[in-house]
Design brief:
The chain is α+β, with helices and mostly antiparallel strands. The protein contains 8 helices and 16 strands. Strands 11-12-16-15 form a 4-stranded mixed beta sheet. A 3-stranded antiparallel beta sheet has the order 4-7-8. β11 and β12 form a beta hairpin. It is elongated and about 85 Å long.
Length: about 325
C-alpha cells in the first residue's frame, strides 16, 4: 500500500467529544446526545446536519464496537484530525474473489477505487470497508484468463442507510473515483443507486457494470453492503423482521395509575395507553409501526419499553406528599408485592 492515495485522518474521539479513555457507556451517551442534536428530522440546517449526523454515526460505528475501536486505537494517539494519512501496510490490501476465481495483484496495472455518497469517509473505507470484495480502497487484480476474455473483478463497499430510507426507500447518487496505479491518473464517474424499502443490515445491493473495468473485458459489478445508521431513539430488534424498539420514560404515578402518553414513531408521535400497574422493562407493542418486512407488503411492529423516571430534587410540598404516601402505602419493594 506504499502507493496508496492519502486520505484525511479522522479523530473519532474528537467527533464525539470524548477522551480516548472514555468508557463504552460514555461513548454511547455522547453519540445519543449528538445524534439527537444533529438528526436531519429536527435540525434547522438540513444539509449541514445530515453531513454531521453521518460523521457522528461513522465515529460510533468505530468506537461503539470493541473490535473496531481496538483496531483504530492501534494507530496511536499522535495523529491529528485533517492530517494526511496513509493506511499502514497490510490494512488496505484486500484480495477479494471475483467471478473468475482468485486473481493475483498486478502492481503495474493496479488501481484504487474510492466511493463518495456512501455515507462513509475514505478514511473509514481504508481501515474498515470492503472486507469481502475490495471495499473503498481496492488494489487492482489481474484475472487468470486470456486477454480479451472474462470480466473485471467485482468490488464491494459499505453504504450507510438511515432508517427513514429503509422505511420509504431512496435514490442515492454515488461517485466512483478510480486511480490508475501505473500512470498516476484518476477517473471519476457518477451514477444513481436505488435503495429499496425494507433493506436489512448486511444486505448487498448490486450495481451492474460498476466494478473493475479492464481493456478487452466486460466490467465487474459493484456491491454496496448496507450498514444501518444508528438512530438516537430507535433500535432494530434482533430476531424480528422489521421490528423496532424504543424506550418510553414514564412518571411513577403514570405507571401506577395508567396514562395516555405520546410515543415517538418513525412517522411522528402517536398516543399510547400505559396500563395501570405497569413495571419498568415492560413492553407494549404498536403493530405495523416498524420497518417494512421482506415480503414488501407488511411492516414490523414497534416495541415500547417502559422505563420509570424518578424525580430528582423535589419541593417542600412534593416531599410532604411523598412522605404521606410512604406512611400509608402497603407496598413492600423488597418483597416483590
Amino acid at each position: 500500500m506504499a502507493g496508496a492515495m492519502p486520505v484525511e485522518f479522522k479523530d473519532y474521539y474528537a467527533v464525539l467529544g470524548v477522551p480516548r479513555g472514555a468508557s463504552d457507556e460514555e461513548i454511547k451517551r455522547a453519540f445519543r446526545r449528538l445524534a439527537r442534536e444533529f438528526h436531519p428530522d429536527v435540525a434547522k440546517d438540513k444539509r449541514g446536519a445530515e453531513d454531521r449526523f453521518k460523521e457522528i454515526n461513522e465515529a460510533y460505528e468505530v468506537l461503539g464496537q470493541p473490535e473496531n475501536r481496538r483496531k483504530y486505537d492501534r494507530l496511536g494517539a499522535n495523529w491529528k484530525a485533517g492530517s494526511e494519512f496513509r493506511p499502514p501496510p497490510g490494512w488496505g490490501a484486500r484480495r477479494g474473489r471475483g467471478r473468475q476465481g482468485h486473481g493475483r495483484m498486478d502492481q503495474e496495472a493496479g488501481g484504487e477505487f474510492h466511493f463518495g455518497g456512501t455515507g462513509f469517509s475514505d478514511f473509514f473505507e481504508a481501515l474498515f470497508g470492503g472486507r469481502a470484495r475490495g471495499g473503498g480502497v481496492f488494489e487492482g487484480f489481474e484475472e487468470s484468463v486470456g486477454e480479451g476474455r472474462g470480466r473485471g473483478r467485482d468490488l464491494e463497499s459499505d453504504m450507510m442507510v438511515a432508517l427513514d430510507e429503509v422505511l420509504h426507500g431512496s435514490v442515492r447518487t454515488i461517485t466512483q473515483q478510480r486511480g490508475n496505479g501505473r500512470e498516476g491518473r484518476s477517473e471519476a464517474t457518477r451514477f444513481q443507486v436505488r435503495i429499496p424499502p425494507g433493506v436489512r443490515e448486511g444486505q448487498r445491493i448490486r450495481v451492474a457494470g460498476k466494478g473493475e473495468h479492464r481493456p478487452g473485458s466486460l466490467p465487474g459489478d459493484l456491491y454496496l453492503r448496507v450498514r444501518l445508521a444508528k438512530h438516537p431513539d430507535f433500535r432494530v430488534r434482533e430476531g424480528g423482521e422489521g421490528d423496532l424498539t424504543v424506550d418510553l420514560p414514564v412518571a411513577p404515578w403514570e405507571a401506577v395509575l395508567g396514562a395516555t402518553v405520546p410515543v415517538q414513531t418513525l412517522e411522528g408521535p402517536v398516543s399510547l395507553r400505559v396500563p395501570p400497574g405497569s413495571k419498568a422493562g415492560q413492553q407494549l407493542r404498536l403493530r405495523g409501526r416498524g420497518l417494512p418486512r421482506g415480503d414488501g407488503g407488511t411492516r414490523g411492529d414497534l416495541y415500547v419499553v417502559i422505563g420509570i423516571e424518578m424525580p430528582g430534587e423535589v419541593g417542600e410540598e412534593e416531599r410532604h406528599l411523598w412522605e404521606q404516601l410512604a406512611a400509608r402505602s402497603r407496598f413492600q419493594a423488597r418483597s416483590g408485592r
